[in-house]
Amino acid sequence: MSPVSNPSNEIVIVGNSSDNPFAIDVAYAMGQNLDIADLIGMKAFTNTEFCPRFISDELDFQNIGNSLVGKTVVIVSTSSLVKTRQELAMHNFFIARAAKENGAKSVILLEPDLFFSAQDRGAHADLGVTATPRPKEDLKKFDGQPFTSKLYAQMLKLSGVDRVLTVHNHSYSVQCIFDEVFEGNFHNLIPYEIYAHYLLNSNIIKCNSQGEGLALCAPDKGARDFVKSMFTQLGLTKAKFILLDKERTSEHKVRITLHKESEHTFEELEGCSIVLFDDMVRTGSTVVKSCQFLQQLAPHRTIFAVSHFYASDEGRERMANNAIDEILTLNTLPTILNRDVQGRLRKKMVVLKIEKWLAQELGRILELPLTKEANPYKIDMSSKNPRFTRKIWFADQLSSLHTTEQLQ
Known about the structure:
CATH architecture of the largest domain: 3-Layer(aba) Sandwich
Order of helices and strands: EHEEEHEHHEHEHEHEEEHEHEHEHEH
Structural class: alpha/beta
Distance between the termini: 12 Å
Number of domains: 2
Largest sheet: 8 strands, mixed
Number of helices: 12
CATH topology of the largest domain: Rossmann fold
Strand order of the largest sheet: 10-9-8-11-12-13-14-15
Shape: globular
């Protein structure tokens, strides 16, 4: 997608902080050349109260309160190392309200990692949506807590947000609640094409042109649909699909087995490349256990691909384990681009930057005339990761086949 001028300058893109580089890159990809800091001021009073202000001509006394009439305001909201998610959520509320009170016809929240998604149920059966009835053990997990994800959706709506975009949200309950509150104007964007393009055009995996020697792995039934869709996107007919099963033996311990519904067994997978996909990682205990379990195949490489990477000290220490050869992630949490945040994992981490892809998806939803690109992402890799010094394994015809036909 090539940057284009905003049609009639009707799109105004801001961030939940004025120096948000993720928001700046999304704005540039959408063709907005004005800096975010020149569009909105993020001021705070001396008593610490936050008060955003959309910047207008200070000499214009004819259009007071109408500077955004007819415009769509997009709030790009990401987490940071400086402010808590609670603070940033309040920023979203106030910015949305300021936009609506100054005439905006529509307000969109673009939040790649949707805040409060882990708090997706409450202590009663009707507080949350699940595929099966909730046992008392599940209700007890939320005993005494609020159903915060629904409250967040309702407060966004009350503040003036009309539409929400996020990336690969893990919670079925959150998806249902946001879809209900925003009356269908909730978009859970799944980055199939980004993962597919990168896997098919880099040397991260080794297999033949039909996928023989490659296995895609779902760590549990919750990830099965996503991984099966990835399988379809890749179009490698001889690749394998395996499904694992995890039994949680305590709060921080799990036991991994091959699921009885797995489409393939471990036969003929020795020496293969294994890509284990998941939507998010926090402590890393499950993914490390899964990759250790997969070591019985003596794989050529084991790659962990994850959309949301929470780089806790505990998680980084665990995932430095030799059972994981490489970590492929997105920058939905932009702090992952910080080498200090990556720590030792920078030796085996690749981050795919998705600002251009999100701009492309936003343009599609808003029906803007943007030119679609087959690879709308950028690669961020530490110099500590030497992978691209090796030979590229894929033939040229494999790259052209899948990037020009399947990803259109």
